[in-house]
Amino acid sequence: MLGLLLVCCNKPSPEISLPKQKAGYQDLLTAYNAGKVYVEARKTDEGTLVLFTDTELLIPSFGVQLNDCRSSAPAAVSVNKEQNMWVINSLLSGIAYQPTLTAEKATLVYGWYDSKTLHLKISNGQQLDFPYDDSGIPRKFTLPVVKLTFSGALDLETYRTGSYVITDPDKAFSDESEISGTMKIRGRGNSTWGMPKKPVKLKLDSKNSVLGMHPEKDWALIANYADKSLLRNTLGMELSRIMGFSWTPSHVPCEVYFNGQYQGVYDFFEHKETGEYKVNINTDTDFYLEIEQNIDEPHSFWTSYGVPIQFKDPDEPGDERIAYVQDYFKRFESALRGSDFADPVKGYAAYIDVDSWVDNYILMELSKNVDGNTRKSSFFTLVQGGKLEFYHVWDFDLCFGNADYFPDGNNGPTGWWIKDYGTNSTKYTGWYYRLFQDKNFVQKVKDRWNELYPQFCTMDKFIDKAAAELGKGPERNFQKWEILNEYVWPNVKVTGSYSGEVAWLKEFYTERLKWLNTNINKL
Q1: Which of 26, 64, 93, 146 reaches 20 to 30 Å from 396, CA-CA?
Q2: Ramachandran sector of residue 448 (left: φ over 0; alpha: ψ -120 to 50; beta: rest)
Q3: Would you state the pLDDT for residue 13?
Q4: In angstroms, what CA-CA distances link 363 with 69, 279, 368, 369?
Q5: How far apart are the first and last CA of the chain?
Q6: CB neighbours of 3 closer than 8 A, spacing ≥ 6?
Q7: Mean pLDDT over all residues of the chain?
Q8: Which of 270, 236, 232 is nearest to 252 (CA)?
Q9: pLDDT tops 60 at residue 156
Q10: How does DSSP classify residue 153?
Q11: DSSP string over 485-508
């Protein structure tokens, strides 16, 4: 009898080498599993302080790195299938992709926070998004105070030397209650410079982190004199963050003194310029460009569509590079006019970053930005091998129902603006008018609008929260500037009270949102 002996040898599975976890990862995971609701994060000397509604967590500087993406896009994170390794901004991270690991045994690949959420991308492929505190309950804090001391009268050309003291009494925005130093100061702005409450540019003698923002030398103090809600720039920047522009300038509300004299409530803004945390390009090869009718840069030109283009950085690009940019716009506009303009290879899409142009359109139309019809205060990047991108937005004080000089009496919350009016405010002209003749561009606008619409609907609560967080600041501002009962160019409405100004902002925004939602979906 033939016997058959079967021997089964079970080879032990190779052990999975667990990634080394940095300090703070398990604490964050515990907070996530407990359903902690995220409020904000701040950089401190010791690390990153993460605030939740009922607790806080300090992540040490030698531990997990959480990237501040409140004013810039997060890194591109993906997996290299050949190496089975995580890639961050096209660079191998050294962290293996191990999809079988639990969250407890995985580690952080990339962590970042924006104005709404704390995100953790971990090595097993999961993304942990902390819930955000959307209760609309305002924080209670004392407004920061900015005291500037300088000699001489301010003008738009000459920097005056001086010093600054900036206090954040409740440490609402940073971990320091006071910073100080020396600086230079001059006036800034176009039409706003002619108003009694003066906007200024500050150039600190050394980089400093002001009110929790990235350390920089250059800053802008925006006066918001004609915007009696004091909130239109805040609303515009919140919408920019929601939409995910490549950079959203950070800002903090504050009260300002010039040489001991109270000036009112301002917005302390990151200055618009190139830099690691701002317009992040290589100016040896790339360009930062501005649409601006009030020419204030050394080099500029007008396109065949009548769009005024200035070189912001480099401001002295040289003849060859100037010719390159001029030729680029010439070819773009020729393609836009051409019979093949909608062709993705031969047409306009070969020259522009279409997604950023869609987002710029939506925000300019929603805010009914009187300057947004490719006329003023719009900003491009043109990078080597890339396309024209609307990189960031700026200047919303004359938006959301605060400009009374639209053509055809179109000052209210209804009616097309950016879609139909070109640079010279003539109807049925301009870049966007032509783009809307392409059904694919129209569909992109409709799809993006419907994706963003639910978040747009939360701005009513956001406006109330932002107004409440100004505390008694508006009262002091309008004791200094007694204009609530006066027309200030270019107000659409004079309400007579601060609460009335906030109510008008909300009314205009709500009606504009409603009209656009109906009419964009009819396109």
Answers
A1: 146
A2: alpha
A3: 47
A4: 20, 19, 8, 8
A5: 85
A6: none
A7: 93
A8: 270
A9: yes
A10: -
A11: TS--TT-S---SSHHHHHHHHHHH
Question: Quick check: helix, strand or coil at residue 305?
Answer: coil
Q: For residue 7, what pLDDT band results from cuts at 50, 70 and 90?
A: very low
Contact between 246 and 409 under an 8 Å Cβ cutoff? The reply is: no
Using DSSP, state whether 86 is helix, strand or coil.
strand
pLDDT at 344: 94
pLDDT category at 323 given cuts 50, 70, 90 is: very high
Please tell me the distance from the alpha carbon of residue 97 to that of residue 405, in angstroms, as a whole number: 57
CA separation, residue 159 to residues 165, 202, 206, 522 (Å) = 18, 9, 15, 52
Give the residue from 309, 312, 317, 310 showing the smallest Cα distance to 284.
317
Exposure of 395 in the CB half-sphere (CA atoms within 13 A): 22
Q: Which residue has the tokens 């969250």?
A: 103
Q: Give the span between the Cα atoms of 55 and 462, in whole angstroms.
A: 23
Residue 253, H or E segment: strand 251-258
Q: Give every CB contact of residue 91 below 8 A, 6+ residues apart in sequence.
A: none
pLDDT at 59: 92
294: left (phi over 0), alpha (psi -120 to 50) or beta: beta
User: pTM value?
Assistant: 0.86
Q: How far apart are CA 39 and CA 253, in angstroms?
A: 18
Share of the chain above pLDDT 90, in %: 84
Helix 459-469 × helix 498-520 angle, to 10°: 160
Q: What tokens appear for 58 in the block?
A: 């300090």
In 3D space, the residue among 130, 88, 123 whose CA is nearest the CA of residue 103 turns out to be: 123
3-class DSSP assignment, residue 382: strand
| Mean pLDDT calculated for residue range 223-232 | 98
In whole angstroms, give the CA distance from residue 430 to residue 420: 8
Q: What is residue 516's predicted lDDT score, i.e. its pLDDT?
A: 98
- Tokens standing for 334? 């020729």
**CB under 8 Å to 356, separation ≥6 — which residues?**
245, 246, 389, 390, 391
SS (H, E, C) 166-221: EECCCCCCCCCCEEEEEEEEEECCCHHHHCCCCCEEEEEEEEECCCCCCCEEEEEE
CB contact at 8 A, 71 and 79:
no
Write down the residue that tokens 């204030």 correspond to.
Answer: 296
Confidence of residue 16 (pLDDT cuts 50, 70, 90): low
